[in-house]
C-alpha cells in the first residue's frame, strides 16, 4: 500500500498514540481472596505479553514508516526546501529589524539639537547623561526602501517554497510493507 507524506505524518502521530495506549502492565495484585494465584499470575502475564507485542509491532511499523519518510524526503528535496524556508524567515527578520529601527535623523537636525543642548541654561552633569546626547539610527531612506522590497521578495519566495513543499508532501509516496500494513489494519489505523 502506498500513502503520501502528509498521510504518513498523520499516521505516525496515530501510531505513537496507539503505542502509548497499549502500555503493558508489569505488575499484578493478589490478596488473600484470590482463589487461584497461579491462574491470576498467568492471566496477568498473558495480558502483559499481548500488550508488549502490540507495542513492539507498532513500534516496528512506526520506525519502518519513519525510515521510508526520511528516504522519500531526501529524494524529494524536502530538507533543502525547509532550510530555504528557514533562511527566508531569517532574512525577513533581519530586514524587519532595519525597518523597525526607522530613518536616521538628518545631520542638520542632529546639529540643531546639539546646539540647543549647548545653549541650554539648565545645569549639565560633567559626566553627561541621556538628555545631553542625540541618538539616531544609521538607516537612509534608500536602505529602508531596499529592506522593504527585500522583505516582500523573501515573503514571495517563502510562499513559493511552501507551495512546493505542500506539493512534495502530497505527491511523494511511500510504500507500507505487508507486515506493517497488517499491524496497522489490526489496530484500526488504516
Short description:
The protein is mainly α and 190 residues long.
Report on this model:
With 190 residues, this protein is mainly alpha-helical. The chain has one domain (2-103, 139-186). It has helices at 5-21, 37-76, 78-101, 107-119, 141-171, 178-186; strands at residues 2-4, 173-175. Helix 1 (5-21) runs antiparallel to helix 2, helix 2 crosses helix 6 (178-186) and helix 3 runs antiparallel to helix 5 (141-171). The radius of gyration is 32 Å and the shape is elongated.
| Count of β-strands | 2
Radius of gyration: 32 Å
Give the N-to-C terminal Cα separation. Answer: 10 Å
Main sheet? 2 strands, antiparallel
Number of domains: 1
How much helix is in the residues? Answer: over 70%
- What general form does the structure show? elongated
* Portion in strands: under 5%
Give, in spatial order, the strands making up the sheet with the most strands. Answer: 1-2
User: What order do the helices and strands follow?
Assistant: EHHHHHEH
Give unreliable regions as ranges.
Answer: none
Q: How large is the count of helical segments?
A: 6
Q: Mean of residue pLDDT?
A: 92
Structural class by SSE content: mainly alpha
Question: Keyphrases for this structure?
Answer:
190 residues, mainly alpha, elongated
Topology:
Blueprint: E1 2-4, H1 5-21, H2 37-76, H3 78-101, H4 107-119, H5 141-171, E2 173-175, H6 178-186
Antiparallel strand pairs: 1-2
Helix pairs in contact: 1-2, 2-6, 3-5
Amino acid at each position: 500500500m502506498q500513502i503520501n507524506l502528509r498521510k504518513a505524518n498523520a499516521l505516525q502521530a496515530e501510531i505513537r498514540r496507539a503505542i502509548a495506549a497499549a502500555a503493558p502492565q508489569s505488575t499484578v495484585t493478589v490478596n488473600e481472596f484470590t482463589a487461584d494465584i497461579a491462574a491470576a499470575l498467568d492471566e496477568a502475564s498473558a495480558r502483559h505479553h499481548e500488550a508488549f507485542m502490540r507495542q513492539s509491532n507498532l513500534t516496528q511499523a512506526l520506525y519502518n514508516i519513519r525510515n521510508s519518510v526520511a528516504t522519500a524526503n531526501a529524494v524529494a528535496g524536502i530538507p533543502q526546501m525547509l532550510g530555504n524556508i528557514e533562511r527566508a524567515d531569517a532574512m525577513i527578520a533581519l530586514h524587519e529589524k532595519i525597518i523597525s529601527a526607522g530613518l536616521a535623523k538628518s545631520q542638520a537636525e542632529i546639529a540643531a539639537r546639539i546646539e540647543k543642548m549647548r545653549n541650554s541654561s539648565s545645569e549639565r552633569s560633567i559626566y553627561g547623561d541621556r538628555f545631553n546626547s542625540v541618538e539616531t539610527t544609521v538607516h537612509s531612506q534608500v536602505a529602508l526602501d531596499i529592506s522593504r522590497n527585500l522583505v516582500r521578495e523573501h515573503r514571495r519566495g517563502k510562499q513559493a517554497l511552501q507551495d512546493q513543499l505542500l506539493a512534495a508532501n502530497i505527491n511523494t509516496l511511500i510504500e507500507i510493507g505487508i507486515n506493517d500494513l497488517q499491524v496497522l489494519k489490526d489496530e484500526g489505523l488504516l
